[in-house]
């Protein structure tokens, strides 16, 4: 028995999703969240990637609202207010902000 479901959609699709969900009286739309994904071949087979990512979130005291993983992607849902700083911190952690 399903007790709850979550959908992550583009803000441009909210109206369409509301139309689809209007048949169900019990739903809420939260547009104060955002998804950040770390993408790369084998990210889940390398436990260091998950460890470093979770450490950045922990150090910044950012609550993980949801997390999904696959062999090539880690996606994390957080409050929207943290996105810009979190992306910068992850870029720094993975040395993606260095100019060559």
UniProtKB/TrEMBL annotation:
Domain Aspartokinase ACT: 36-93
One biological process term in Gene Ontology: homoserine biosynthetic process
InterPro entries associated with the record: ACT-like_dom_sf, ACT_Aspartokinase
Pfam families linked to this entry: ACT_9
E.C. number: 2.7.2.4
Keywords: ATP-binding, Kinase, Nucleotide-binding, Transferase
GO cellular component, one term: cytosol
GO molecular function, one term: aspartate kinase activity
Superkingdom of source: Eukaryota
Similarity section: Belongs to the aspartokinase family.
Name the UniProt record assigns to this protein: aspartate kinase
